[in-house]
Write a structure and sequence with these properties.
GO molecular function, one term: RNA binding
Number of helices: 21
Keywords: Repressor, Ribonucleoprotein, RNA-binding, RNA-mediated gene silencing, Translation regulation
Radius of gyration: 30 Å
Structural class: alpha+beta
CATH topology of one domain: Rossmann fold
Pfam families: ArgoL1, ArgoMid, ArgoN, PAZ, Piwi
CATH architecture of one domain: 3-Layer(aba) Sandwich
InterPro entries: ArgoL1, Argonaute_Mid_dom, Argonaute_N, PAZ_dom, PAZ_dom_sf, Piwi, Piwi_ago-like, RNaseH-like_sf
Strand order of the largest sheet: 35-34-33-36-37-41-40-39-25-3-38
GO biological process, one term: defense response to virus
């Protein structure tokens, strides 16, 4: 009924060659035992005083209502175990320091250019086809390389050369046979240095022939049909990585689509990107131009050079008026003052056309370097934030990203076999690496959906019959399990001041009341209605005064304290962030926002979704499981914890990361969650004060249930495979130490839920997505640790991406069937859906809370929060960097005590 989410933009025969291997993990290395033999002690391991993940407790699950034959975008990799990969450290620095005496940082593009020049100058010593470079400090080679320091001269095409010292130092010889030992179970820790080296080798060919954008590779030219307008294009590429799996080493490759700025002359880009841009009236657009261009990279056309420059800003003076002190490099002519126009004519033989506009400042290290805009071209492959796209462009990007399974499968196979792909060229073969270009075949299991209950109009509960193919239900003639009465509520109509996008309150309010009543949510029929204007969102103090006025007016009507305010907006506005901050940290009042257009349409599905959110926020329960969750059928109190960290945007260098921890507080329903929210060090993934936040939530659980939970399951989101040790030996250790001080010793299980991976599941026959409840726990999973892929939702748009669950610690002795069923069942309890979601709810809720914290922080940075706006007029002129410093203050994020244990975030 409620379309809550859409998909994102994420056995073969051996070849038989004697000198190639494809290792399969032997059965003897996996504990072979029945579920009754599983005891907690087998899953709790410490080696050298460090926690390590548990082994898989069995050979995989057995429960299924049917099985499905699948293709997976894992391509088996064959390698020569006798290969030795040389690992070398490359240190590059300028021979002469800059004028201020400092060694300026060299850009990644310049590092690659310097390496390429050295290798092309000395091809016998440094054969390109036998080496792979990560673009920074590491070179991997299939043959021994000479070590020492080499000089490389790079010409800037302006009669100037820069000399670099390239120091090459041997780090180690990576013996690929150790990877074989890992797959055979002889060593427990994965040889990450070898995997890193092989991964760089697999990236070398696409890095030479394509544009590298973060971890993605994209073609130099975009398809004209993928133009998004405004100088932006959709670029179709791929990302890939090597993975150790039960079938051996595999390369996982997935299709990706990014919005990028087109490779255009800067002036032409501005004409396409800025509405109404007129170079003849540049002053009117100056501020916008500077905002659009700042920090973008450009190349120049007035001289021959491969250098790329970052735009610092615009010159204060127009091009015709810029002059500077010129010093002849030869020293034969005394220094003199020259105009930029004359310099370009005499030096480069070019005539500057646009004299009445500023130049671009391409300087480094606080040194100005003015270049006329007409000689600058945007460097290819610069990513454009998808959130900044217009509506039509955003929909087009989404359509291209959400390729249906047959199309995505074909694209992936084409990319694997392409000459520009990871196996094109000679590099990988020279390292003894080959690939099977066929997708991995695997058999998946579809597990049964749980039995659910809803409320009944006649009282009591109504069991819900679930179609396992669709796993969706509707609320026609049904009620929520527990409807929370709403006696004091108000409608704050910000659309009232708009002519074309205003709410019709006499239609919307009665319809919402009727829909709530049908769902079993008693709601008073006479709310306080307050008209307002969208202009209120532009000023934080005015917004606070508006909300206070509504509260005061409701009290004058005898309503007492409001339970919720329905806020109607004409459009999405940044002031929404400030509204949430005011209500959730200062006032302690739940709000539910909606758009006037949707509210006026008042479709039954929309109203039901609105009512479900309102009920969950106020403490009601929409749907519950009939049976207790697996492994806990016999009783005991259980708490589910979800944790996530939200990091600032990549270009942001100062703002805090936001850590969120949520926990279930009702048992056995496990449908109500409380949240804790804190800022922490910039881009730090490990959660600060994790144990403290968890103990706070345990105490909340104890107040509600009369006792602490005996079992705690922690679901951690957002960590990569390389960060598993951090979760185990920092976060888990902190939780246990804090619990120990509180004389609290529950059994604990820690599970990482990953959605940021490239694994995709395709039906071997058929064009649709895999059915909900599809589990894969063989072949493509970890060689011996306890993990599995679960696709818990029904993919309607695009290709379904399963969630990868990896057990890092288990004191409960879960079997595969028990844990897979428990997680799948929990996915049906998400508060605002009438279908299972793709991610276990504790993690989904933690993600929502962390994002809410980011909204609070953005309200402060934008000068929109009352804490920022009410200080003084001079405070409003503070720089954003000052605001970023203030945003580390924990008090700014502290939830009001009236909401700290409520689901305000759904």
């Amino acid at each position: 009924m409620v379309a809550e989410e859409e998909e994102e933009e994420e056995e073969e025969e051996e070849e038989g060659e004697e000198n190639k291997i494809k290792i399969s993990f032997p059965d003897s290395a996996v504990p072979d035992m029945q579920s009754s033999e599983i005891i907690p002690s087998l899953s709790v391991l410490k080696i050298s005083d460090k926690f390590v993940p548990p082994k898989r407790p069995d050979k995989g699950g057995a429960l299924a209502i049917w099985s499905v034959r699948l293709l997976v975008n894992h391509f088996p990799v064959n390698y020569d175990p006798n290969t030795i990969i040389g690992h070398y450290d490359v240190h590059i620095q300028r021979e002469s320091p800059s004028r201020n005496g400092r060694l300026a940082k060299i850009s990644k593009s310049d590092l690659c250019m310097i390496r390429e020049k050295l290798f092309s100058d000395c091809p016998n010593d440094f054969p390109m086809a036998m080496t792979a470079y990560d673009g920074e400090k590491n070179v991997f080679s299939a043959i021994p390389l000479p070590v020492g320091t080499y000089k490389v001269e790079i010409s800037d095409g302006d009669d100037r050369t820069t000399t670099y010292n390239v120091a090459i130092k041997h780090v180690s010889d990576l013996e690929v046979c150790k990877l074989k030992d890992y797959f055979c179970g002889k060593v427990l820790s994965v040889p990450r240095d070898i995997l890193q080296g092989m991964d760089i080798v697999m990236k070398e060919n696409p890095a030479r022939q394509m544009i590298s954008i973060a971890r993605h590779f994209h073609p130099w030219e975009t398809d004209p049909r993928d133009d998004l307008g405004c100088g932006i294009a959709a670029s179709r590429g791929f990302q890939h990585s090597l993975k150790p799996t039960s079938q051996g080493l595999a390369l996982c490759l997935d299709y990706s689509v990014l919005a990028i700025r087109k490779h255009l002359p800067v002036i032409k880009f501005l004409e396409q990107h800025i509405d109404g841009f007129n170079i003849g009236n540049f002053r009117s657009f100056r501020e916008k131009v500077e905002t659009v261009l700042k920090e973008l990279k450009v190349s120049v056309t007035h001289r021959r050079t491969k250098q790329k420059f970052s735009i610092v800003g615009l010159s204060d003076r127009d091009t015709r008026n810029i002059d500077f002190d010129y010093q002849d490099p030869s020293g034969q002519i005394p220094p003199k003052r020259v105009f930029l126009v004359d310099y370009f004519r005499e030096k480069y033989g070019v005539k500057i056309q646009h004299l009445n506009i500023p130049c671009l400042d391409l300087g480094k290290n606080n040194r100005q370097n003015f270049v006329p805009m007409e000689f600058c071209v945007l460097v290819e492959g610069q990513r454009y934030p998808k959130d900044d796209l217009g509506r039509d462009a955003g929909l087009m990007l989404k359509r291209l990203s959400l390729a249906p399974p047959p199309i995505r499968k074909r694209i992936i196979c084409d990319m694997v076999q392409a000459s520009s792909g990871p196996f094109g060229g000679d590099v990988s073969r020279n390292f003894g690496i080959q690939v099977d270009a066929s997708m991995t075949r695997v058999t998946g299991r579809v597990i049964a959906p749980p039995q659910l209950k809803l409320g009944s109009p006649n009282g009591g509960f109504s069991p819900l019959v679930m179609d396992p193919q669709n796993c969706q239900w509707n609320l026609v003639d049904k009620q929520v399990v527990e409807g929370r009465p709403i006696d004091q509520w108000a409608v704050l109509d910000f659309s009232a001041g708009e002519r074309n996008k205003r709410l019709f309150p006499n239609q919307f309010i009665p319809k919402l009341i009727r829909r709530c009543e049908k769902l079993g949510i008693h709601i008073k029929r006479d709310p306080h209605y307050e008209p307002a204007s969208m202009r209120v969102f532009g000023n934080a103090r005015t917004l606070r005064e508006c909300i206070d006025w509504v509260i005061a007016q409701a009290r004058e009507k005898g309503m007492g304290n409001l339970q919720i305010i329905i806020c109607v907006m004409s459009w999405r506005d940044n002031g929404y962030k400030t509204l949430k901050w005011i209500c959730e940290t200062e006032i302690g009042l739940v709000t539910q926002c909606c758009l006037s257009g949707s509210a006026n349409e008042a479709k039954d599905q929309y109203l039901a979704n609105l009512a479900m959110k309102i009920n969950a926020k106020l403490g009601g329960s929409n749907v519950e499981l009939i049976e207790r969750l697996p492994r806990f059928e016999s009783g005991g109190y259980v708490m589910f914890i979800g944790a996530d960290v939200n990091h600032p945007a990549p270009h942001n260098k100062t703002c805090p990361s936001i850590a969120a921890v949520v926990a279930s507080v009702n048992w056995p329903a496990a449908t109500r969650y409380a949240a804790r929210l804190r800022p922490q060090e910039h881009r730090k993934e490990s959660i600060s004060k994790f144990g403290e936040m968890c103990l706070e939530l345990v105490d909340t659980y104890a107040r509600i249930n009369g006792r602490r939970p005996e079992s705690v399951l922690v679901f951690r989101d957002g960590v990569s495979e390389s960060q598993s040790d951090m979760v185990l030996n920092e976060e888990l250790l902190e939780i246990k130490e804090v619990f120990k001080v509180a004389n609290y010793f529950p059994t604990v299980t820690v599970i990482v839920a990953r959605k940021r991976h490239q694994t995709r599941l395709f039906l071997e026959s058929g064009s649709g997505n895999v059915p909900p409840g599809t589990v894969v726990d063989t072949t493509i999973i970890h060689p011996f640790e306890f993990d599995f892929y679960l696709c818990s939702h029904r993919g309607i748009i695009g290709t379904s991406k399963p969630t990868h669950y990896h057990v890092l610690w288990d004191e409960h002795g879960f079997t595969s069937d028990q844990l897979q069923t428990l997680i799948y069942n929990l996915c049906f309890t998400f508060a605002r859906c009438t279908k299972p979601v793709s991610l276990v709810p504790p993690v989904y809720y933690a993600d929502l809370v962390a994002y809410r914290g980011r909204m609070f922080q953005e309200a402060l940075i934008g000068g929109q929060s009352p804490a920022y706006a009410s200080s003084s007029s001079s405070a409003r002129s503070h720089s954003s960097s000052s605001s970023a410093t203030n945003s580390f203050d924990e008090r700014f994020y502290k939830l009001h005590e009236d909401l700290s244990n409520e689901m305000f975030f759904v």
